[in-house]
Amino acid sequence: MITKIIDVLAAIVVGTISFLGYGGIFLLMLLESSGVPVPSEVIMPFSGFLVFKGQLTLIAIVLVGTLGNVAGSLLAYWIGHRGGRPLIEKYGKYILISKHDLDLADRWFLNYGPLTVFFGRLLPVVRTYISFPAGIAKMNLKKFIIYTTLGALPWVWLFGWLGVKMGANWENIRATLHNFDISIALLVVVAVGWYVWRHLKNKKKYA
Fold first, then answer.
1. What domain range is 6 assigned to?
2. Where are the alpha helices (DSSP H) in 53-170?
3. pLDDT tens digits for 9-66?
């Protein structure tokens, strides 16, 4: 089921970039960074393949891809900054998020926000959603932009370059990363499971 969904998304990515060129790369990377599960592992390698064919240039796809990443991250940051905390303070108890948790997140991003954003941008799955908590915690915007750019740039360049080197075999990149993506997703699920278990345990303890 998941494989079929990914195949459909990959076909949409290929069609969009084939039709819109650089504009398609920007749009898709913007969507991916704003929380829409569009696989950048397809966007940039296919863009690199088009560089291999002589239709695009590597410098341009890296620049456009990075700008799209930053634009999408800013959109997600803005959503979290403007509406995230009030909504969670009001409804967070229904998903086991307390004001105490929000305060902890604020302190975390105050002390480690730049590194969290930077390394988060380098991880599949995590990179798509890292901007929301940064916005909710109201991380310094200037630092957010700088570290988002620094984290996005190597990712975009690497997968664009791999697409160039792989040429017509660019899809092998997606196949190789598939198991790694699943591993990261499982780690996220385990972390969420631990978080829920801890809250339920503390709730019983203080009931």
1. 2-205
2. 58-79, 85-91, 99-120, 126-129, 131-136, 141-166
3. 778 888 899 999 999 999 999 998 887 878 777 889 889 999 999 999 999 999 999 9
